[in-house]
């Protein structure tokens, strides 16, 4: 028996099916490209957007007499925001609604998005809770958290020995 006998008669010598072996690096390179595309596409999105949910950016800074909490809330008004404080954290809640419409000759574009958000920020225990104030201007929420008087008195300079 020759090898020709193993080839079905409907195939001629030039038409024998050849199994193509895919280049193993091609799939690897494709996966790396997809990984970079996903990584950099997240960076290209608005800084306050993560997978379609609104996540406000927050800065928490300690100063001499108070702590400052700043939250970026673009496109919102003070009516859309709720700030509450319990004994160990402060919570910022709100709802963001956005509508865009554009119309030109032969062209109409409309986009609507909405969703709620909340951020819980842990607080130090040395806050005078009766004097906490919040202001909102140009999309920036600033919460002033004064330190308690006992904490300010307890500061003691320690000398460093050599």
CATH architectural label of the domain at 54-153: Sandwich
Number of strand segments: 9
And the CATH topology of the domain at 54-153? Immunoglobulin-like
CATH class of the domain at 54-153 reads Mainly Beta
C-alpha geometry: elongated
Summarize model confidence as the mean pLDDT: 78
- Helical amount among residues, as a percent range? 10-25%
Quickly count the helices: 2
The helix/strand class is alpha+beta
Question: How much is the radius of gyration in Å?
Answer: 31 Å
Main sheet strand line-up: 3-4-9-8
Most strands sheet: 4 strands, antiparallel
Proportion in β-strands: 35-45%
> What is the chain-wise order of helices and strands?
HEEEEEEEEEH
Point out poorly predicted stretches.
Answer: 44-52
Distance between the termini: 96 Å
What does the model show?
The strands form three sheets. The chain has a four-stranded antiparallel sheet with strand order 3-4-9-8, with no helix packed on it. The chain has two helices and nine strands. The protein has a domain of 100 residues: Immunoglobulin-like. With 162 residues, it is α+β, with helices and mostly antiparallel strands. The protein is elongated, with a radius of gyration of 31 Å. Strand 8 and strand 9 form a beta hairpin.
